[in-house]
Amino acid sequence: MINKVILSGRITHDIEIRQTPSGASVTQFNIAVERSFAKQGEERQTDFITVVAWNKTAEFIGRYFAKGRSIAVIGQLRSRTYDDKNGTKHYVTEVFADEVQFTFEPKTSQNAQNEGYTAQNGTGYSNYAPNSNAPQNAAQSVTGLGDDFDLFNDDGTPF
């Protein structure tokens, strides 16, 4: 059996990391994913999909992603039910993230004001700028590489 989901979208609200009683980190957030088609004369619709991440993946998301950032999620689709305090049964479908990745975003005037890096004109891509509480050299922090490693080349492209 195969259960694999790959999504790319924008985070819809600030990331909040919680701890379970046993100390595991967990976060739950929504991403807005535009549909790839639209009826003639209508705008594309957007689906809002709930993502759940645990432990190191949750901590990574909390540290390097924020509301409005683009994210790619690879995971598994899971469904569950629960009864609320009134006895009403609710059905929930979520994506449990196995891995997440940075995605490159087209440069907009809003991104230009908020990001610490600039994109090369004509590339259509912007470089990732970590949250203000994150280290400036995200690659060094994540991979443990030395000071001489730079995530971005002089021309603004990664690696």
Instruction: Specify the oligomeric state.
Output: single chain
Shape: globular
> Mean pLDDT, as a whole number?
77
The percent of residues in helical segments reads 10-25%
CATH-defined superfamily of the largest domain: Nucleic acid-binding proteins
Class derived from helix and strand content? mainly beta
Query: Main beta sheet: strand number and arrangement?
Result: 5 strands, mixed, barrel
Trace the largest sheet across and list its strands. Answer: 1-3-4-6-5
Layout of strands and helices, then pairs:
Blueprint (H helix, E strand, L loop, with lengths): L4 E7 L6 E2 L5 E10 L11 E9 H10 L5 E14 L5 E14 L6 H6 L23 H6 L16
Parallel strand pairs: 4-6
Antiparallel strand pairs: 1-3, 1-5, 2-3, 3-4, 5-6
Written description of the protein model:
This protein has 2 domains: 5-103, Nucleic acid-binding proteins (OB fold (Dihydrolipoamide Acetyltransferase, E2P)); 109-153, no CATH class. Helix content is 14%, strand content 35%. The protein contains 3 helices and 6 strands, in the order ββββαββαα. It has helices at 55-64, 109-114, 138-143, and strands spanning 5-11, 18-19, 25-34, 46-54, 70-83, 89-102. Strands 1-3-4-6-5 form a 5-stranded mixed β-barrel. The longest helix has 10 residues, at 55-64. The chain is globular. The protein starts with a strand and ends in a 16-residue tail after the last helix.
